[in-house]
User: What shape does this take?
Amino acid sequence: AQSVTQLDSQVPVFEEAPVELRCNYSSSVSVYLFWYVQYPNQGLQLLLKYLSGSTLVKGINGFEAEFNKSQTSFHLRKPSVHISDTAEYFCAVIPPVGTGGGNKLTFGTGTQLKVEL
Amino acid sequence: ETGVTQSPTHLIKTRGQQVTLRCSSQSGHNTVSWYQQALGQGPQFIFQYYREEENGRGNFPPRFSGLQFPNYSSELNVNALELDDSALYLCASSYPGTPGDFGEGSWLTVV
Assistant: This one.
């Protein structure tokens, strides 16, 4: 089984400041890792994903995340946030097909990013 | 937009009633997964359908059931609605083992 912990339920930040949203996971098998964004009253939009290869992955809207296997972390970062980044962010994992870990996305509880002027 | 369409977008039901939510899959995708997102929570996996067969289920009671049709679209049915069933219901269409693309969701309120 997998679990995902998002350590911060809310992160307030001023516009143009950098931000890091933290995500740690636990799994008995290797996993693929994802970050999703959810704007108010909308569905989930994929920001970025790590499947294999380079541990630094870049996504849409200037976001990036770094996979750290030893720390089982996949923190999301953006060097300069904008008001429009205000949203809920979810970290999620899924085991690759055939690893016996199931076939579902397991989500964290989310981090509300609030960008202020 | 992802090409995954869910309907209805919003609905209100009374406790004890039944509800059917629908999801169209993206062209080429043969797998549909359903998730429940309660207010202030992350989405929770309900079940997945692959080629019209249930292919995994989360910790939800049997009154949550589903169907997948030959065109890979899907339905989620919930019987004997309870107040705690109030949530956003998300579907994702994909290939097996990938998370796929999410629809905008169906907001269900049970009163």
Q: What stands out?
A: Chain A has no helices and twelve strands. Chain A touches chain B at residues 4, 32, 34, 36, 41-46, 49, 90, 92, 94, 96-98, 102-110 (CB under 8 Å). The radius of gyration of chain A is 14 Å. The CA atoms of residues 68 and 74 of chain A lie 6 Å apart.
